[in-house]
Specification:
single chain; alpha+beta; 5 helices
Amino acid sequence: MASAPQIGTQVPDFTLPGGVLTGDRFERRDYVLSLQRGRPLVLAFYPGDDTSVCTKQLCSYSSGLEQFQNQDAEVWGISPQDVDSHDRFARKYDLRMPLLADTDRRVARAFGVTAPGIGLRRAVFLIGSDGTLHWKHVALLGATFQSLDTLARHLGGMATT
């Protein structure tokens, strides 16, 4: 098993299927991490679609997308559910960020966020435009999540380093 990426190191590349709600259409495609280079990326791993804390977390990030965009950053949500589940979840809560399907948990394992019993831990990774990891938070218990303000502050710090 690969070890989790460390601050200052390149994150492992991956390709996952997913989609994003645009207007009333859920646009499906493959998301390739290495093609995101050139702008910062927030990877938000979450245990499950349409669950209490995950819904609050992703609604918070979706409603605050402008704050991320003002820092030229994109946000990708990643969970083990399939793209059909993500489609329903995005439509139900009007989520406007890409939701990626890591159904075999391969990417979660590469980032060190799998957990027995719950599948994966709630975690956030801030990746710089050059593909290096600048900040991460991996929760031991998934009852809370990193706030939009916390992420925006750390993104702002990336621009000055």
